[in-house]
Amino acid sequence: MGTLTGQRPAPDGERFYRFDVAQAVKGPIGTEIEVRAPLLVDANGRPVGAGVDAGVLARLEGATFTTDSCGLTDPGALLAEADEPRGGWIKLLIGAAILASALAYSLRRRRRRG
Protein backbone atom coordinates (compact mmCIF):
# COMPACT_ATOMS: atom_id res chain seq x y z
CA MET A 1 0.00 0.00 0.00
CA GLY A 2 1.44 3.35 -0.92
CA THR A 3 1.19 6.74 -2.54
CA LEU A 4 2.12 7.36 -6.15
CA THR A 5 4.89 9.97 -6.14
CA GLY A 6 5.99 10.02 -9.75
CA GLN A 7 6.42 8.29 -13.07
CA ARG A 8 8.85 8.19 -15.97
CA PRO A 9 8.75 6.57 -19.40
CA ALA A 10 10.22 3.12 -20.01
CA PRO A 11 12.00 2.35 -23.31
CA ASP A 12 9.18 0.15 -24.68
CA GLY A 13 6.28 2.59 -24.21
CA GLU A 14 5.39 1.42 -20.71
CA ARG A 15 6.10 3.53 -17.64
CA PHE A 16 7.95 3.23 -14.35
CA TYR A 17 5.77 4.32 -11.43
CA ARG A 18 7.34 5.22 -8.08
CA PHE A 19 5.38 4.65 -4.88
CA ASP A 20 6.14 5.66 -1.30
CA VAL A 21 5.31 2.50 0.66
CA ALA A 22 3.08 3.23 3.66
CA GLN A 23 2.70 -0.42 4.65
CA ALA A 24 4.07 -3.56 3.06
CA VAL A 25 1.37 -6.22 3.03
CA LYS A 26 3.38 -9.18 1.84
CA GLY A 27 7.11 -9.58 1.62
CA PRO A 28 9.97 -7.33 2.65
CA ILE A 29 10.25 -4.18 0.54
CA GLY A 30 11.73 -0.78 1.25
CA THR A 31 10.08 2.56 1.83
CA GLU A 32 9.97 3.25 -1.91
CA ILE A 33 9.26 0.93 -4.80
CA GLU A 34 9.37 1.35 -8.55
CA VAL A 35 6.84 -0.63 -10.56
CA ARG A 36 6.83 -1.09 -14.33
CA ALA A 37 3.40 -0.97 -15.98
CA PRO A 38 1.47 0.19 -18.99
CA LEU A 39 -0.48 3.41 -18.44
CA LEU A 40 -2.27 2.99 -15.10
CA VAL A 41 -5.88 4.14 -15.14
CA ASP A 42 -8.59 4.22 -12.48
CA ALA A 43 -11.99 2.50 -12.70
CA ASN A 44 -13.30 5.38 -14.85
CA GLY A 45 -10.44 5.14 -17.36
CA ARG A 46 -8.64 8.29 -16.15
CA PRO A 47 -4.84 8.12 -15.76
CA VAL A 48 -3.70 7.72 -12.16
CA GLY A 49 -1.84 10.84 -11.04
CA ALA A 50 0.68 11.66 -8.33
CA GLY A 51 -0.60 11.75 -4.77
CA VAL A 52 -3.06 8.89 -5.23
CA ASP A 53 -3.12 6.26 -2.47
CA ALA A 54 -3.40 2.75 -3.84
CA GLY A 55 -3.01 -0.86 -2.93
CA VAL A 56 -0.66 -2.26 -5.56
CA LEU A 57 -0.68 -5.95 -6.39
CA ALA A 58 2.64 -6.43 -8.16
CA ARG A 59 4.65 -9.43 -9.27
CA LEU A 60 8.41 -9.74 -9.44
CA GLU A 61 9.66 -10.50 -12.95
CA GLY A 62 13.41 -10.88 -12.81
CA ALA A 63 14.55 -7.84 -10.85
CA THR A 64 11.55 -5.65 -11.77
CA PHE A 65 8.18 -5.33 -10.09
CA THR A 66 5.37 -5.22 -12.66
CA THR A 67 1.64 -4.58 -12.49
CA ASP A 68 -1.22 -3.20 -14.57
CA SER A 69 -4.41 -1.24 -13.90
CA CYS A 70 -6.16 -4.40 -12.69
CA GLY A 71 -3.45 -4.71 -10.03
CA LEU A 72 -4.52 -1.45 -8.36
CA THR A 73 -7.03 -1.70 -5.55
CA ASP A 74 -8.52 0.26 -2.70
CA PRO A 75 -5.85 0.39 0.04
CA GLY A 76 -8.44 -0.16 2.79
CA ALA A 77 -9.75 -3.33 1.15
CA LEU A 78 -6.22 -4.64 0.68
CA LEU A 79 -5.32 -4.04 4.33
CA ALA A 80 -8.57 -5.61 5.55
CA GLU A 81 -7.79 -8.76 3.59
CA ALA A 82 -4.16 -8.84 4.72
CA ASP A 83 -5.06 -8.35 8.39
CA GLU A 84 -7.07 -11.57 8.64
CA PRO A 85 -6.62 -13.24 12.02
CA ARG A 86 -4.14 -16.09 12.00
CA GLY A 87 -3.67 -19.11 14.22
CA GLY A 88 -7.35 -20.01 14.53
CA TRP A 89 -6.74 -23.73 15.00
CA ILE A 90 -4.06 -23.18 17.61
CA LYS A 91 -6.32 -20.83 19.57
CA LEU A 92 -9.13 -23.40 19.37
CA LEU A 93 -6.88 -26.18 20.68
CA ILE A 94 -5.60 -24.03 23.54
CA GLY A 95 -9.17 -23.11 24.46
CA ALA A 96 -10.21 -26.79 24.41
CA ALA A 97 -7.24 -27.68 26.65
CA ILE A 98 -8.19 -24.98 29.15
CA LEU A 99 -11.82 -26.15 29.13
CA ALA A 100 -10.77 -29.78 29.65
CA SER A 101 -8.52 -28.76 32.56
CA ALA A 102 -11.32 -26.76 34.20
CA LEU A 103 -13.78 -29.65 33.81
CA ALA A 104 -11.31 -32.17 35.20
CA TYR A 105 -10.62 -29.94 38.19
CA SER A 106 -14.36 -29.44 38.83
CA LEU A 107 -15.10 -33.17 38.63
CA ARG A 108 -12.23 -33.98 40.99
CA ARG A 109 -13.51 -31.44 43.55
CA ARG A 110 -17.03 -32.79 43.24
CA ARG A 111 -15.87 -36.40 43.91
CA ARG A 112 -13.99 -35.30 47.03
CA ARG A 113 -17.09 -33.57 48.46
CA GLY A 114 -19.60 -36.18 47.59
Provide a quick synopsis of the model.
The chain has 114 residues and is α+β, with helices and mostly antiparallel strands.
Written description of the protein model:
- By secondary structure, the protein is α+β, with helices and mostly antiparallel strands.
- The chain folds into two domains: 82 residues; 29 residues.
- It has two helices and seven strands; from the N terminus they run βββββββαα.
- The protein has a seven-stranded mixed sheet with strand order 5-6-3-2-1-4-7.
- The longest helix is centred in the C-terminal third of the chain and has 26 residues.
Unreliable spans are none
Helix content: 25-40%
Structural class: alpha+beta
The biggest sheet, with number of strands, parallel, antiparallel or mixed sense and barrel status, is: 7 strands, mixed
Principal-axis shape equals rod-shaped
Continuous helix count:
2
The largest beta-sheet arranges its strands as: 5-6-3-2-1-4-7
How large is the radius of gyration?
25 Å
